[in-house]
């Protein structure tokens, strides 16, 4: 072999290396041409993801710690529906309030007497009063004690101040007979106010008053039932036994259960009971309240008739065993009573504010109760005022009550409320704000 010739063994390794490099290059080109991204979140050609692991598909869950484009976030819990029920004591227009409200001819206006309380009646979501007396009919002269007959305008005045309905079962319901008792309900209907406790037929007597509210996307129905201890000895017509409902625990429980069967989420019982001018509930009130609480059918009792405030309580039992709330007496709202005729506490009543909470997936329950003293300036044109506002701010020019009198009235109410039991019952000094549209008053069957 010539000296300058290259041995075959030195050229074979170079050719092998060249072929190997060429194969690698071809493989890279092929891989680049055929590779597609698994996650194209940035649009065609985006490179925001990596290929899934062996055995997975593009829709399989990613490895731990990675974010999945198909992961569904947890739904936001639906909010609770929360609203307030407000109530006051007796609307009891004696002769003097009627005279003050007289504006000439057959016209009367009680609005000025109650204007200072408007923020409260308009501030709650459902406002319920106690209409102590029947109305006088057209052509009749209005009158006060002993056989009452209020001017019909008082109903429109209450509606204009934000009241939604009233209890009409009292010891004065039939002061002027059956016709006036039924006429009273006609006027309530014409003004769009609800009523409970008296009736124009047996069918109406068996029908609670319903109020429908829409809150937090929920339709909530409140039922009101009412009854009185008696009618001052005046006989209920034997052919109209349904004219006014009398206190009977079993009948009230049956009414409440019927209301729930008809969709009521909450049942309020307005009871005319107790002894006049007694600052504490009596054993009969307690016994009836305990029986109603044990039934589990009633959420809240609003009490009236004693003409003075009485304590509040939360009793064991109630719907679902969550307790039943009781305001034993809210005292007076409109009246001509104070220490001049009666005991000093008759000049001051309570505005009760009950808070109701209903979860989206649970029942409605009363979750709190507060109280605000309302007092009447008898010599100052019978005007009613929230008492805390008179003590905290500049008194109105028309007020005839002294600072000492106002402080004495507040102290007397605080002493009464110290006897409340079963829960915390705070003093509320500022009016609430509505949480939604006014309730729909569902007509009863007349």
Question: How would you characterize this protein structure?
Answer:
- With 446 residues, the chain is of the alpha/beta class.
- It has one domain: Purple Acid Phosphatase, chain A, domain 2.
- Helices cover 26% and strands 24% of the residues.
- The strands form 3 sheets. Strands 1, 4, 5, 6, 13, 14, 15 and 16 form an 8-stranded mixed beta sheet that branches. The protein has a 7-stranded mixed beta sheet with strand order 11-12-10-9-8-7-17. The protein has a two-stranded antiparallel ribbon with strand order 2-3.
- Strand 15 and strand 16 form a beta hairpin.
- It is globular.
- The N terminus is likely disordered.
Summarize this entry quickly.
The protein is α/β, with parallel strands linked by helices and 446 residues long. It is 26% helix and 24% strand.
Question: Layout of helices and strands, plus pairs?
Answer:
Layout: H1 8-34, E1 81-91, H2 95-101, E2 102-104, E3 107-108, H3 111-114, H4 118-123, E4 126-131, H5 153-160, E5 165-167, H6 178-190, E6 194-196, H7 202-205, E7 209-215, E8 218-228, H8 249-261, E9 266-272, H9 283-295, E10 300-304, E11 309-315, E12 324-330, E13 332-334, E14 348-358, E15 365-377, E16 383-386, H10 387-392, H11 403-417, E17 440-442
Parallel strand pairs: 1-4, 1-13, 4-5, 5-6, 8-9, 9-10, 10-12
Antiparallel strand pairs: 1-14, 2-3, 7-8, 7-17, 11-12, 14-15, 15-16
């Amino acid at each position: 072999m010539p000296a300058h010739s290259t041995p075959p063994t030195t050229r074979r390794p170079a050719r092998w290396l060249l072929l190997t490099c060429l194969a690698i290059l071809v493989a890279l080109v092929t891989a680049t041409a055929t590779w597609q991204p698994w996650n194209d979140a940035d649009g065609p050609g985006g490179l925001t993801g990596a290929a899934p692991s062996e055995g997975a598909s593009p829709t399989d869950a990613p490895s731990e710690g990675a974010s999945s484009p198909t992961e569904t976030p947890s739904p936001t819990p639906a909010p609770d529906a929360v609203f307030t029920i407000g109530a006051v004591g007796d609307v009891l227009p004696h002769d003097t309030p009627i005279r003050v409200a007289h504006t000439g001819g057959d016209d009367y206006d009680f609005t000025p007497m109650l204007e200072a309380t408007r923020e409260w009646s308009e501030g709650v979501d459902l406002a319920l009063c106690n209409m102590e007396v029947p109305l006088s009919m057209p052509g009749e002269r209005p009158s006060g004690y002993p056989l009452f007959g209020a001017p019909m305008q008082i109903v429109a005045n209450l509606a204009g101040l934000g009241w939604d309905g009233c209890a009409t079962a009292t010891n004065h319901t039939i002061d002027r007979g059956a016709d006036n008792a039924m006429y009273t309900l006609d006027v309530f209907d014409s003004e769009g106010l609800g009523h409970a406790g008296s009736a124009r037929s047996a069918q109406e007597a068996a029908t609670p008053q319903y109020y429908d509210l829409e809150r937090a996307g929920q339709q909530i129905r409140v039922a009101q039932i009412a009854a009185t201890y008696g009618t001052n000895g005046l006989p209920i017509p034997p052919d109209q036994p349904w004219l006014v409902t009398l206190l009977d625990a079993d009948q009230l429980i049956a009414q409440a259960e019927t209301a729930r069967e008809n969709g009521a989420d909450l049942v309020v019982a307005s009871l005319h009971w107790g002894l006049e001018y007694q600052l504490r509930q009596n054993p009969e009130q307690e016994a009836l309240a305990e029986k109603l609480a044990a039934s589990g059918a009633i959420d809240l009792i609003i009490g009236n008739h004693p003409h003075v405030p009485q304590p509040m309580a939360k009793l064991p039992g109630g719907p679902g065993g969550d307790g039943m709330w009781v305001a034993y007496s809210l005292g007076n709202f409109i009246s001509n009573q104070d220490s001049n005729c009666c005991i000093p506490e008759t000049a001051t009543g309570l505005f009760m504010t009950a808070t109701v909470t209903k979860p989206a997936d649970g029942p409605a329950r009363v979750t709190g109760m507060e109280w605000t003293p309302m007092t009447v300036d008898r010599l100052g044109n019978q005007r009613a005022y929230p008492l805390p506002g008179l003590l905290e701010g500049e008194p109105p020019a028309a007020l005839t009550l002294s600072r000492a009198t106002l402080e004495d009235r507040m102290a007397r109410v605080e002493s009464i409320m110290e006897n409340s039991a079963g829960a915390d019952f705070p003093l509320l000094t500022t009016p609430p704000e509505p949480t939604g549209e006014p309730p729909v008053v569902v007509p009863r069957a007349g």
